[in-house]
Specification:
The protein is of the alpha/beta class. Helices cover 19% and strands 35% of the residues. The protein binds inosinic acid. Inosinic acid (IMP) binds next to β4, β6, α3 and β9.
């Protein structure tokens, strides 16, 4: 795959560039600036990025921060192919100590919201002072839960997307832009 392509084909699915690498980089800078406004090195947040999808976004976002923070990558999974399975698996063993700390959860995309609806309530028992969510993408038409999302990059239509960490069956994560499926039939 060449990362500057305007369209990509994976199996029988055609994807078209939807958010360019430049547009994404600008948004990451805006989100980083907002977060810099809200936190300081005196009381820095623990940043928990949900894997696999958020690894590239988290890598770019955390390098915008002008406070010292701890970054933890946490594996969660709920997707197979293009369908959310609804069952969310969380690797609780990999969680850092959040007691009396601010926490930012970094997501690549909020689709049904099942992942966050399953994960966020488990944080209450961990003693975090505050929990905020930063997601690059949000599909408002797909969300099935009442979630408070403090930092949202782009609201996008309810179409499957790949690139910039997001995959189709493990493929397409390395694309620099975000691509939207052309026909989902
Ligand atoms: P949710 O639990 O339905 O909100 O979905 C959360 C996870 O599903 C995301 O972190 C992604 O990994 C994956 N996901 C949701 N929508 C898409 C998509 O359009 N493309 C690729 N992965 C997606």
């Amino acid at each position: 795959i060449i990362t500057t392509m305007k369209s990509v084909k994976l199996d029988e699915h055609q994807f078209q560039e939807y958010l360019s690498a430049e547009v994404i980089a600008d948004k990451v800078a805006v989100l980083g600036a907002k977060i810099n406004n809200d936190y300081t090195s005196n009381d820095p947040p623990i940043v928990i990025a949900l894997l696999n999808g958020a690894f590239i976004f988290a890598a770019d976002l955390c390098r915008q921060f002008d406070f010292e923070c701890q970054l933890q990558l946490l594996r969660v999974s709920s997707y197979k192919g293009m369908e959310s399975t609804g069952k969310v698996k969380i690797d609780h063993d990999a969680e850092p100590d959040m007691n009396n700390r601010h926490v930012i959860i970094v997501e690549d995309i909020v689709d049904t919201g099942n992942t966050l609806a399953a994960y966020l309530p488990t944080l209450k028992a961990k003693g975090a002072k505050s929990v905020k969510v930063c997601t690059l993408l949000l599909k408002p038409e797909a969300v099935q839960h009442d979630l408070e999302l403090e930092y949202v990059g782009f609201e996008i239509p309810n179409k499957f997307v790949i690139g910039y960490g997001l995959d189709y069956n493990g493929r397409g994560r390395n694309l620099g832009a975000i691509y939207s499926i052309v026909a989902n039939k």
